[in-house]
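Lab manual, section 2.4: Encoding a predicted structure.

Procedure: take the sequence of the chain (229 residues), apply the prediction step described in section 2.3, and record the output as structure tokens. A sample record is shown.
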Amino acid sequence: MAGLRLLITNDDGWDAPGLDALKSLAVHVGDVFVVAPRDPHSYAGHRVTTDVALHLVETGAQQFHLSGTPADCVRVALTSLLPDVDWVLSGINRGGNLGADIFTSGTVAAAREAALLGKPAIAISQYMRRGLPFDWKEGAEMALPVIEQLMAEKCPIKGYYNVNLPHLDAGESSSLVFCDPDNQPLDVRFDRDGQEFRFCGAYSTRARTPGRDVDHCFQGAITVSRLSL
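Recorded output:
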């Protein structure tokens, strides 16, 4: 894998700790270029910008932020800045992107946009358990061998990977599981106050299908789903 050129992006914004964690592991795999959103775009899905100009700012050597969505970052990078990159990595997202999340996730949308443009891609997300301390360095260490394995296995044309890292207790270890995304709905509930509705669903109590990504990740496994267009 020596000499690989990697495009890095995310949906939490260019200054998010998960992006720093991804950059720290990606330098062990190849030459890193960053084009990340200037602002957070969690739950933005595959939204793109076509009606206003996008502003690019250089923040460091081979690092930029863009006034657009994650999918915009990939579009601009692959069509105008870095057309010869070998892989696109998106993340590491703060929070899981499991099951139905893949449809609303800006992290996964960036990988999907890369696949649309003919580049192999991996979206990486970190499931967070409320109240449990988390170290981004540990997340990066968990993700690195997975990324190396997926790159070695290659990626089907118009395909991409969705990786979710578990949030483990101190001293726990995880296994790697290839599985399908869950197709159960999220815990969708709202508190109503007159004509106002505030979402109150709980991520950790969502329905799980045995053998699919939500179930495996919640039980402490690293999950990988092979997705295609």
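Check your result against the sample. Residues 166 and 218 are 7 Å apart (CA to CA).
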